[in-house]
Amino acid sequence: MDARQMKIKAAEAALSHVEDGMRLGIGTGSTAEEFVRLLAEKVADGLQVQGVPTSERTARLCLDIGVPLKSLDELPELDLTIDGADEVDADLRLIKGGGGALLREKIVAAASSRMIVIADETKVVDTLGAFPLPIEVNPFGLLATRIAVEKLAARLGLSGEIKLRQAAEDAFTTDGGHHILDASFGRIPDAEALAIQLNSIPGVVEHGLFINIASFAIIAGEAGARTLKAK
Ligand code: 5RP
């Protein structure tokens, strides 16, 4: 099974949790896009759902292939969000934001009764942090915010390069008009402490640590899809 087939397997399994009439948060990234494609087929067959996209990229795909959309202001309470992840650990802590949509992804997931993560086995880790942690920051005072993040990391015993994400010649800009610092810590032994303290830095808009948000994860591997629940 190649990487795309695994993403499709996870997306198929997630689709079985979607019921008629649901208000759905719809994630961002290549795995979430496989889910959108399968969802569009069900919608064409008569399934009624209303989707709230977590990015402009996802919104465009949904509109192109016929998944009905609402804004989060129109549907502020959702039944279920389905989204990918960059890393998942055994306690269902996640790193997200590889696709730059972490702020909207977190807002949408938090507005949902349940969040199901869809991923392949390569995303499952013992300790978060091999994937660089995306930290969404306000462009105002970028350097000051970066220094504050570096000092916080040092206090927590974390080291590694913190890089401003680029898109072609310029700094990458999120749908919300912010930038992203990607922090290559390698290992994040205390994700809870880092999450809380990052949120106390004024220039940090949000970070890619999703803790106590996912309900369960559907992990696809060679043998098919399995459910990962928190220990
Ligand atoms: C986007 C995300 C994605 O869910 C994450 O990057 C996983 O993407 P993919 O399914 O393409 O591996 O958090 O901000």
Q: Total helix count?
A: 6
Bound molecules: ribulose-5-phosphate
Oligomer: single chain
Distance between the termini: 28 Å
Mean pLDDT: 97
Rounded to an integer, what's the Rg over CA atoms?
17 Å
Strand order of the largest sheet: 2-1-3-6-14-15
- Tell me the major beta sheet: 6 strands, mixed
Extended strand count: 15
Helical content, roughly? 25-40%
Uncertain residue ranges: none
| Strand residues, percent | 25-35%
Based on CA inertia axes, which overall geometry fits?
globular
What string, H for helix and E for strand, traces the elements in order? HEHEHEEEHEEHEEEEHEEEE
Structural class: alpha/beta
Labels describing this entry:
231 residues, alpha/beta, 6-stranded mixed sheet, 4-stranded antiparallel sheet, binds ribulose-5-phosphate
Describe this structure in words.
With 231 residues, the chain is of the alpha/beta class. The chain contains six helices and 15 strands. 30% of the residues lie in helices and 26% in strands. The strands form four sheets. The protein has a six-stranded mixed beta sheet. Ribulose-5-phosphate binds next to helix 2 and helix 4.
Short description:
This protein has 231 residues and is of the alpha/beta class. The protein is 30% helix and 26% strand.
SSE order and pairing:
Layout: H1 3-15, E1 23-26, H2 30-44, E2 50-53, H3 56-65, E3 78-83, E4 87-88, E5 94-95, H4 102-110, E6 112-120, E7 133-137, H5 142-155, E8 162-164, E9 166-167, E10 170-171, E11 179-183, H6 191-199, E12 204-207, E13 209-210, E14 216-221, E15 224-228
Parallel strand pairs: 1-2, 1-3, 3-6, 6-14
Antiparallel strand pairs: 4-5, 5-13, 7-11, 7-12, 8-11, 9-10, 14-15
Helix pairs in contact: 1-2, 2-3
The structure holds ribulose-5-phosphate (5RP).
